[in-house]
Amino acid sequence: MIVYHPLFPPAPSRLGLYPVVDSVEWIARLLEAGARTIQLRIKDRQDSEAEQDIIAAIKLGRRYNARLYINDYWRLAIKHGAYGVHLGQQDLQTASLEAIRNAGLRLGISTHDDREIDVALATRPSYIALGHVFPTRTKQMPSAPQGLEQLATHIKRLGDYPTVAIGGISLERAPAVLATGVGSIAVVSAITQAMDWRAATKQLLELAGAGDE
Ligand SMILES: Cc1ncc(COP(=O)(O)OP(=O)(O)O)c(N)n1
Ligand SMILES: Cc1ncsc1CCOP(=O)(O)O
Ligand SMILES: [Mg+2]
């Protein structure tokens, strides 16, 4: 049985709906719509080009008392006092976990299989993300989707560890994903590509909640 004893500040066991978006505009809209766990995921920009957006997102996160995670840019997240950082397995090879920990930031880590879950558990992060559950067009994935059965097996293995499912989670698929016992659903296109993002967010919030305090 895995006991939740993180080396980083703890996350609530249920992070609820977790939109992952690429702009400050989306962060502002979604906080206003009621999301309380959210990620700024900017790709392929220099630190100097991403810094102002990271500062603005952190400020908004504080204003709404939200759990605002910064993807990848861990140095800027530390510099500007973000709530948390999300890192993938590749990122773990270059990031200073000690610096993130010393700065008091939460840490979320991506995983795709049992071996990566072993690696994540060894770092004792605040939460563990599991993906991708279904095919996704948002990010090129080197592995196959794990599907609901594998996700459920991982959730069982992780006991009371806070977990997040990601990858191809649509409004229609969300109930089955949540039925595995996962504490959170991270979504990109289910919100940003929806015909009506407000309606989609409202329905996803009704299904997953905004997260525990
Ligand atoms: C909640 C959540 N889970 C997984 C990811 C993917 O992170 P990573 O593997 O580092 O890939 P990039 O997002 O950096 O392309 C995530 N961002 N958030
Ligand atoms: C960033 C990321 N990491 C694993 S899948 C994914 C993209 C998820 O996007 P969508 O919700 O549109 O499938
Ligand atoms: Mg990354």
TrEMBL record:
Binds 1 Mg(2+) ion per subunit. Residues 22-191 form the Thiamine phosphate synthase/TenI domain. Keywords: Magnesium, Metal-binding, Thiamine biosynthesis, Transferase. The keyword Magnesium applies. PANTHER family: THIAMINE-PHOSPHATE PYROPHOSPHORYLASE (PTHR20857), THIAMINE-PHOSPHATE SYNTHASE (PTHR20857:SF15). Mg(2+) binds at residues 72, 91. It comes from Tenebrionibacter intestinalis. The gene is thiE. 2-[(2R,5Z)-2-carboxy-4-methylthiazol-5(2H)-ylidene]ethyl phosphate binds at residues 136-138, 168, 188-189. Its EC number is 2.5.1.3. Pathway: Cofactor biosynthesis; thiamine diphosphate biosynthesis; thiamine phosphate from 4-amino-2-methyl-5-diphosphomethylpyrimidine and 4-methyl-5-(2-phosphoethyl)-thiazole: step 1/1. It is an enzyme of class 2 (transferase). Pfam families: TMP-TENI. This is Thiamine-phosphate synthase. GO terms for molecular function: magnesium ion binding; thiamine-phosphate diphosphorylase activity.
